[in-house]
Amino acid sequence: MIALFSALLGFFSSAFPEFIKLYREKKDRVHEITLLHLQMEYDRQKLRDAREAQHLEYAHKIEAIELERDMQESRDLNARPDGSGERRSGLIWVDALSGSVRPMMTYLFFFMYAWVKIAHYHLLMNPTLPWQQALNHPQAMVALWTEDDMAVFTAIIAFWFGSRMFRKSRMM
User: Fold this and answer.
1) CB neighbourhood size of 95 (10 A)
2) CA atoms within 13 A on the CB side of 152
3) What is the DSSP string of 19-69?
4) Is 99 exposed, middle or buried (0-12, 13-18, 19+ CB in 10 A)?
5) What is the pLDDT of residue 93?
6) CA-wise closest residue to 171 among 83, 74, 101
7) Which helix (H) or strand (E) holds 136?
8) How far is CA 22 from CA 25, 32, 129, 143, in A?
9) What does the pLDDT read at residue 44?
């Protein structure tokens, strides 16, 4: 019995280091797989960050291009042919007409607006329909100046003087 027990003990004691070696190899493989997964996740995150940085860089470049385009368009629209500078078309009368379109549209709108308000004033002072009552001068003036008129007036003033302020702030 002792001989059998010592044979088994000898067999198992010689195989024991191999079992420990297999156990360690298994643990090492699990550890390496875990490290590989962590490395892959790190590389994925690094790639995501690089893509995001690239998208941000592209967005900034596009924004800069759009801003430059808007500034150039603004410069082109506000360019006035004054005789001393470079002309856009080369023909004086075409450049003068091109430079006068926006102010002329403003003047035409103002005269049309004034004409409508004068006609409205005359209708308030001398009504043509039987159910309307004639108003005196102060009542007619108050009736003519509405919130819509204030909005139009404010928009025009803000446009002309606001654009002037922005132009001056760009030059500083």
Assistant:
1) 19
2) 10
3) HHHHHHHHHHHHHHHHHHHHHHHHHHHHHHHHHHHHHHHHHHHHHHHHHHH
4) middle
5) 79
6) 74
7) none
8) 5, 15, 110, 100
9) 94
Would you call 130 helix, strand, or coil by DSSP?
coil
Contact residues for 139 (Cβ-Cβ < 8 A; gap 6+): 124
pLDDT of residue 37: 94
Phi, psi of 12 (to 5 degrees): -70, -35
Type of residue numbered 90: G
Q: List C-alpha distances in Å: 135 to 113, 125, 140, 144, 145.
A: 21, 5, 6, 11, 14
Confidence at residue 84, expressed as pLDDT on a 0 to 100 scale: 46
Question: Which amino acid belongs to residue 154?
Answer: T
3-state secondary structure of 110: helix
pLDDT of residue 78: 65
The pTM assigned to this predicted structure is 0.42
Residue type at 65?
A: I
Mean per-residue pLDDT pooled into runs of 10, the chain (172 residues) = 70 73 88 93 94 94 90 73 55 77 84 92 85 84 88 82 64 56
